[in-house]
Amino acid sequence: MTLRSYLFVPGDRPERFAKALASAAHQVVIDLEDAVAPDAKIAAREQLSQWLRSSLSGVDRRRVMVRVNASGTPWHADDVAMLHDSPVRDVMVPKSECPEQLGDIASRLGADAALVALVETVAGVVRMREVAKAQAVARLAFGSFDYCVDAGVEGMDRELDAVRSAFVIESRYAGLPAPVDGVTLAIDDAALIAEDVALGRRFGFGAKLCIHPKQVDAVNRGYAPSDADRAWAERVLARLAENPKGAFAVDGKLVDKPVIDRAKRIAADTSIQGVSV
């Protein structure tokens, strides 16, 4: 399944877990880190543990991941230990900047662990190639706001061009799916969300972190191939079937192997109108 939307839900609000799963989000990220105050973290972990073991259906299990507290915090080890005893092995790791720490988490969770490395510091960007190849890392995600704070960057537009390109390059080099872009803080500004999704897609991102269910549909639609994309891919592959070994053009443009590969990727994408099947 093509994963395009990662919806955060606070880990201390169990009444919202089912509502998040009822949305069109491809992944629901139950957040034990930033969304939970320090004095509520232990209770949130205990409530989440109970919910994962007693209320999470097998159908929904593959759609749930947990953002644990960062390595070095007082809650990190217990978060990972709780997940080891739960049915969920998909984990978002904040402040990912050390491949050894990621490997330690993977080892403690077992062979079926899958980690989304949330890179949100200068150190993480500098070591992103090592992070991307760390044990059990399945995808990179950009913690854009935290990165800007850490780096002293005051803008979210062209100021981040080099970092965005690094995410795409390192994901591709490591053989990972296209990376996950950072959040848009505006909840009700549909135009801004669509603009941010279009920007991420142009850079080569394949998904986006969401902070509210209202953002999910725009993200799913924006990262899915458009009807025009699909029609173009069909034309390319039809001409390829007619000329499997010869050169040919589509829409007045020469088609070579990279173009054919792109057409095949679009044709293989099973999502329709923002819903993956």
UniProtKB/TrEMBL annotation:
Q: Where is the HpcH/HpaI aldolase/citrate lyase domain?
A: 4-213
Q: Where on this chain does substrate bind?
A: 67, 120
Q: Which Pfam families match?
A: HpcH_HpaI
The source's domain of life comes to: Bacteria
**Keywords, comma-separated and alphabetical:** Magnesium, Metal-binding
User: Quick one: a GO biological-process term for this protein?
Assistant: oxaloacetate metabolic process
Q: Which Gene3D superfamilies match?
A: Phosphoenolpyruvate-binding domains (3.20.20.60)
GO function terms (MF aspect): catalytic activity; magnesium ion binding
**Can you tell me which residues bind Mg(2+)?**
120, 146
The cofactor(s) it depends on are:
Mg(2+)
**Protein name, please?**
HpcH/HpaI aldolase
Q: Which organism is it from?
A: Caballeronia telluris
